[in-house]
């Protein structure tokens, strides 16, 4: 028989015993399957084994082969309590619920096992009937182990007995590995060789008979034939299974050639057939034994596995395809807070957050499609509402038919993992920040740069929300931030410390006082910093820590770090931040040391540089030599003055720089310095080229490091000698300038007492020099100036340049204006330079007047460009003369021919009563004596420079005095070469109108005359554009425009318009008889008579040489008749031309609107046409 092998532990295959499979019932669905990652099971049909008939049959067969009777089999059944193996000791419910696997790989002791294919979730269910398992276990235990006992030896012995051979063997060829071969008369080695012989002949037709092996080519070379025991005879019968595989061979062997009879052959074949049954039974019994052992092991393993599942920290949950929870371990209860009683039977969605419900749908879809999901990182909701970060694994659960019936899910809590990762990441960030800060300590060279970099690195690299560093200021009693970075919003202010309130300090203050760290891992829960809760919550701060910064073991600052996450300051973070604060303290101390060293080095360099600069910048020569006269140091000036190089000076003695005659004196002074400590001497220094320069030398002894030295300095005094000469020369020059200066120069002491004065000053004041010396300011300045004397003296004393115009008083009492420039003399006295500026002041006033007159001219010129009316221009000229100029009153006049006197047309003045004043001047003066009348008549300018002295204006003297008017001028204005207006101006100063003022005013009046002429010409041109130059009537263009206005008005008022065209007859004859002048006189007479005869409103115009036209509007139906009658009346009376009476005839044409035409052009044409067609003239 084939030996059955258990499946591999990692194989999920289905194995079926060949013995059982042969007799399996055709019903499916009764088998029991088991599949999990940890073990596999055989799928068998337990229906055969439930009635125990196969067990009884196996026992009977075994008893038959061993010579036991059926009674012993019955006794064995009774001993096991199973007299009737087919007895229905289980109900159908028991059969459907229990697993009976007699002869299968897994038999569970009274347990119904539920397996989770992914997580080996095993939940034992107590079996209702344990008797079956116990009886089956006793049956297997009653029989010996077939693998440990030679069970087939009796078959081999029986075969040898039947065939009467010395040798017999049952050779197991393949498949039955748990039984051993059996032999008679053969050694173990010979038995193995017999197996090879059987294997060689197993494919031969059975039975296999070899009567003489030496003559059989198949076996003659076999070791049993050629060697011991020298087999000559072989007869073998194969033992086959039902599916025809060869399991073994039963053979007999002999040393002599021979043959078996028929009875013997038949007996061997029967024995072989019985051996098949026995092999089957032994194989089945061995399998049953193994199943019992493995079932016991699996029972213990399942219980152990169930304990593992229940004690697992992971949540292991099962649910069906509808999402209903079917299993819930204690790990799920600990993780999510729900007990198994609360969850089993409810929907799995109660632990899924609302925003992840679609994720559960995707998981269910994957399970339905048989897919496994591994390590999905997601969230699940606990009973208290918090969200738990988990890693999800899900696998489908299948029934015995392979149908998916549910899902097994394992949730691993990732909270601790995330916390560890977060902590590790935070530690890495802080460590990186520490490393970068240490690098910054090496790189940075300034305190502020280091502190700001530390704060920036803690935020950008360390991941903190805010970092700032502050130091205590004893002056302000504040911890003043010097570096800030992060979520500050500019609100990190100085923190005040209170020495009198140590019981409630703020965090930074607490660190500053105690020198210990301050750590708060939950700002909102720490009552010690209650005042900061609102601000911390507003800015999103949940934790903070402060660390001391020390300066030589004294805490003078704090490092303050804020985090947006609570509980972020663990022991490792605190240790790293302590190291940050310590490194910052070290960096600051190092920077301080470096700064101190740098300052010291800089001070040394500065002092040396300063010494060098001072030595080199001294105005004279400097030298330094010892008591033996050896030069140690000197400045560059010494080399320049002496002409020797540095190498030459180093080899010379101090006396080598002087002439022989001066060496004795110099040697004496040098000895005096070394003995007494100091000496001076003046002597000429002899240069290398032999030239000498007078120098003043000073020497001083210096004791340094036990040696004596001389430090000397020489000043070139040649310039001083020259200066003294120059000073004497300068004093002589000064005295000359003082005496001969054209301006007055006066010297006084600080009390304003005069000490000296030059000739010009004496002449200016009328005093002699002797008279002036001893006087003071009160004697020579006007009394009104005395208040300015003391301020002037103080200003000059202060060294400020002084300049001012003063009013002086001469000895005779007369006054004059002078410009005074004051300065302080080297001896502390006051010196004043006085210049008489009387003439200059007169010129300045005159220039001011002239400039104002020019301003008047400019303003009037501007008005000329803007104004196109004569009267308006004259009024603007008067206004400008008063407001822009220096004239209090101005008016313009035209000549009135009716009264033969000037008539005022424009005026302006300085006050509201100006008009009355100007009009009173005209009334009080006869017309022919009025200056403006004279100017208009003569065309010449009239100038009166003293109104009060003119007898002609005696009547005006009082009014002129009241108005402070002393001078007047009238300027004629011309147009077309004749005076058309006059401009009169009054001035307050006598003799105001001199030649320069008159020249400017004449230039002004010429421009004004040109403007008047331009206005007159413009008005004349405008008149000619619309009126007939001869008659003054409207021309053709103006008449048509007026006619259009009549027609437009008539259209809107339902009136009529009548147009009459008039043509004089024989007018050419009048021109030929009387000349053009006579014709023009006639035309003017006709025009005048028409204007007088016609009733208004009307329009009349001359449109041709002898053609007139008249238009009139009205609502009278007889308007045309009335107008014709008026025109006829004009020509009914003769005209007087050049003293002659003349009867004039005229032809007329009449047209009416709207009867004859509907517009002005047509109406005008119809009237012309009617005139042309007229036969009878108007008379």
What can you tell me about this protein's structure?
The protein is an alpha+beta fold and 1179 residues long. 32% of the residues are buried. Helix 3 packs across helix 4 (70-79) and helix 7 packs antiparallel against helix 10 (262-311). A hairpin with a 2-residue loop joins strand 17 (543-551) and strand 18 (554-563). The strands form nine sheets. It has a six-stranded antiparallel sheet, with helices on both faces. A five-stranded antiparallel sheet has the order 4-3-7-6-5. The chain has eight domains: 18-145, no CATH class; 146-290, Beta-Lactamase, CATH 3.30.450.40; 312-413, PAS domain (Beta-Lactamase, 2-Layer Sandwich), CATH 3.30.450.20; 420-598, GAF domain (Beta-Lactamase); 618-716, PAS domain (Beta-Lactamase); 733-830, PAS domain (Beta-Lactamase, 2-Layer Sandwich), CATH 3.30.450.20; 843-1015, Beta-Lactamase, CATH 3.30.450; 1027-1172, 2-Layer Sandwich (Alpha-Beta Plaits). It starts with 17 loop residues before the first helix and ends in a 7-residue tail after the last helix. The chain has 35 helices and 39 strands. Mean pLDDT is 77; it is low at 1-150 and 496-503.
Number of strands: 39
Instruction: Output the number of helix runs.
Output: 35
Report helical residue fraction.
40-55%
Just give the CATH class of the largest domain: Alpha Beta
Widest β-sheet, arrangement of strands: 15-14-13-18-17-16
Provide the CATH architecture of the largest domain.
Answer: 2-Layer Sandwich
User: How many separate domains make up the residues?
Assistant: 8
Largest sheet: 6 strands, antiparallel
Query: How would you classify the quaternary structure?
Result: single chain
CATH topology of the largest domain: Beta-Lactamase
């Amino acid at each position: 028989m084939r030996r059955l092998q258990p499946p591999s532990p990692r194989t999920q295959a289905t194995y079926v015993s060949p013995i059982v499979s042969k007799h399996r019932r055709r019903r499916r669905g009764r088998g029991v399957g088991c599949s999990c990652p940890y073990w596999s099971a055989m799928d068998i049909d337990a229906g055969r084994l439930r009635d125990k008939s196969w067990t009884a049959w196996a026992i009977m067969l075994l008893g038959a082969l061993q010579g036991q009777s059926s009674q012993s089999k019955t006794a064995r059944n009774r001993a096991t309590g199973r007299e009737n193996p087919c007895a229905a000791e289980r109900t159908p419910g028991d059969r459907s619920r229990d697993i009976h696997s007699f002869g299968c790989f897994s038999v569970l002791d009274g347990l119904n096992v539920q397996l989770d294919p992914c997580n080996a979730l095993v939940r034992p269910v107590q079996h209702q009937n344990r008797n079956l398992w116990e009886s089956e276990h006793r049956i297997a235990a009653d029989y010996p182990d077939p693998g440990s006992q030679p069970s087939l030896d009796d078959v081999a012995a029986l075969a040898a007995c039947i065939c009467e051979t010395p040798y017999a063997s049952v050779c197991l060829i393949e498949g039955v590995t748990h039984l051993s071969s059996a032999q008679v008369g053969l050694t173990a080695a010979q038995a193995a060789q017999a197996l090879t012989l059987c294997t060689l002949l197993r494919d031969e037709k059975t039975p296999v008979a070899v009567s003489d092996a030496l003559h059989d080519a198949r076996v003659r070379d076999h070791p049993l034939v050629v060697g011991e025991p020298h087999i000559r005879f072989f007869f073998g019968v194969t033992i086959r299974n039902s599916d025809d595989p060869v399991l073994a061979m039963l053979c007999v062997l002999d040393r002599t050639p021979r043959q078996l009879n028929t009875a013997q052959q038949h007996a061997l074949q029967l024995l072989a057939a019985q051996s098949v049954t026995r092999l089957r039974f032994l194989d089945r019994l061995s399998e049953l034994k193994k199943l019992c052992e493995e079932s016991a092991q699996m029972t213990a393993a399942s219980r152990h596995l169930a304990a593992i599942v229940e004690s697992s920290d992971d949540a292991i949950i099962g649910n069906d395809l509808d999402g209903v929870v079917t299993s819930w371990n204690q790990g799920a209860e600990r993780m999510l807070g729900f007990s198994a009683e609360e969850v089993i039977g409810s929907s799995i969605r109660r632990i899924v957050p609302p925003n992840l419900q679609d994720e559960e749908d995707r998981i269910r879809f994957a399970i339905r499609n048989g897919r496994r999901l591994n390590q999905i990182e997601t969230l699940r909701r606990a009973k208290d509402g918090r969200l738990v970060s988990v890693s999800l694994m899900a696998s489908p659960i299948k029934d015995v038919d392979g149908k998916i019936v549910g899902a097994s899910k394992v949730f691993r809590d990732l909270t601790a993992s995330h916390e560890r990762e977060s902590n590790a990441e935070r530690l890495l960030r802080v460590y990186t920040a520490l490393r970068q800060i240490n690098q910054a300590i090496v790189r940075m060279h300034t305190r502020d740069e280091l502190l700001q970099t530390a704060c920036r690195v803690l935020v950008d690299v360390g991941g903190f929300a805010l970092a700032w560093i502050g130091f205590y200021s004893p002056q302000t009693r504040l911890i003043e931030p010097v570096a800030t970075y992060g979520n500050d919003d500019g609100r990190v202010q100085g923190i005040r410390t209170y020495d009198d309130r140590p019981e409630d300090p703020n965090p930074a203050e607490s660190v500053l006082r105690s020198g210990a760290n301050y750590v708060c891992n939950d700002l909102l829960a720490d009552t010690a910093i209650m005042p900061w809760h609102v601000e911390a919550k507003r800015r999103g701060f949940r934790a903070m820590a402060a660390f001391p910064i020390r300066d030589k073991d004294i805490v003078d600052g704090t490092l303050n770090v804020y985090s947006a996450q609570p509980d972020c300051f663990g022991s490792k973070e605190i240790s790293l931040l302590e190291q940050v604060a310590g490194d910052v303290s070290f960096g600051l101390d190092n920077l301080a040391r470096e700064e101190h060293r740098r300052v010291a080095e800089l001070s040394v360099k500065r002092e040396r540089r300063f010494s060098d600069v001072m030595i080199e910048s001294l105005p004279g020569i400097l030298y330094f030599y010892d008591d033996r006269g050896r030069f140690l140091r000197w400045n560059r000036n010494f080399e320049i003055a002496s002409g020797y190089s540095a190498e030459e000076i180093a080899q010379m003695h101090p006396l080598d720089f002087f002439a022989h005659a001066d060496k004795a004196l110099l040697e004496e002074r040098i000895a005096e310095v070394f003995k007494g400590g100091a000496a001076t001497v003046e002597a000429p220094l002899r240069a290398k080229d032999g030239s000498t320069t007078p120098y003043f030398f000073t020497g001083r002894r210096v004791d340094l490091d036990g040696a004596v030295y001389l430090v000397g300095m020489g000043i070139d005094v040649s310039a001083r000698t020259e200066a003294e000469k120059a000073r004497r020369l300068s004093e002589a020059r000064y005295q000359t300038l003082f005496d001969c200066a054209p301006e007055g120069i006066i010297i006084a002491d600080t009390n304003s007492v005069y000490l000296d004065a030059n000739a010009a000053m004496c002449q200016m004041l009328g005093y002699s020099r002797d008279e002036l010396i001893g006087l003071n300011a009160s004697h020579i300045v006007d009394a009104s100036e005395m208040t300015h004397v003391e301020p002037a003296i103080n200003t000059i004393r202060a060294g400020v340049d002084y300049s001012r115009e003063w009013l002086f008083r001469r000895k005779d009492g007369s006054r004059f204006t002078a410009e005074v420039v004051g300065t302080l003399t080297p001896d502390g006295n006051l010196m004043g330079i006085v210049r008489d500026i009387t003439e200059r002041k007169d010129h300045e006033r005159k220039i001011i007047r002239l400039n104002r007159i020019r301003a008047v001219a400019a303003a009037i010129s501007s008005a000329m460009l803007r104004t196109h009316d004569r009267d308006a221009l004259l009024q603007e000229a008067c206004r400008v003369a008063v407001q822009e100029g220096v004239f209090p009153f101005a008016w313009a006049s035209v000549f009135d021919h009716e009264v033969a006197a000037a008539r005022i047309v424009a005026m302006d003045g300085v006050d509201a009563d100006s008009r009355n004043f100007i009009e009173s001047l005209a009334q009080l003066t006869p017309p022919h004596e009025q200056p403006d009348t004279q100017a208009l008549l003569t065309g010449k300018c009239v100038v009166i420079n003293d109104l009060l002295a003119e007898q002609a204006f005696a009547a005006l003297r009082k009014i002129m005095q009241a108005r402070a008017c002393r001078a007047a001028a009238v300027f004629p204005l011309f147009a077309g070469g004749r005076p058309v207006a006059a401009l009169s101006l009054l001035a307050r100063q006598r003799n105001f109108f001199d030649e320069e003022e008159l020249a400017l005013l004449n230039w002004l009046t010429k421009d004004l005359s040109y403007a008047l002429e331009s206005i007159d010409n413009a008005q004349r041109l405008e008149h000619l554009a619309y009126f007939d130059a001869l008659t003054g009537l409207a021309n053709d263009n103006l008449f048509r425009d007026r006619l259009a206005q009549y027609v437009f008005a008539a259209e809107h008022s339902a009136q009529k318009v009548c147009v009459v065209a008039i043509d004089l007859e024989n007018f050419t004859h009048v021109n030929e008889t009387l000349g053009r002048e006579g014709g023009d006189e006639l035309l003017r007479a006709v025009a005048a008579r028409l204007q007088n005869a016609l009733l208004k409103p009307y329009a009349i115009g001359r449109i041709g040489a002898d053609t007139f036209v008249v238009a009139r509007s009205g609502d009278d139906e007889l308007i045309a008749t009335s107008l014709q009658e008026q025109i006829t009346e004009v020509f009914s009376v003769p005209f007087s031309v050049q003293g002659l009476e003349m009867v004039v005839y005229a032809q007329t044409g009449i047209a009416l609107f709207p009867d004859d035409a509907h517009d002005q052009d047509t109406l005008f044409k119809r009237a012309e046409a009617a005139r042309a067609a007229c036969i009878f003239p108007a008379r």
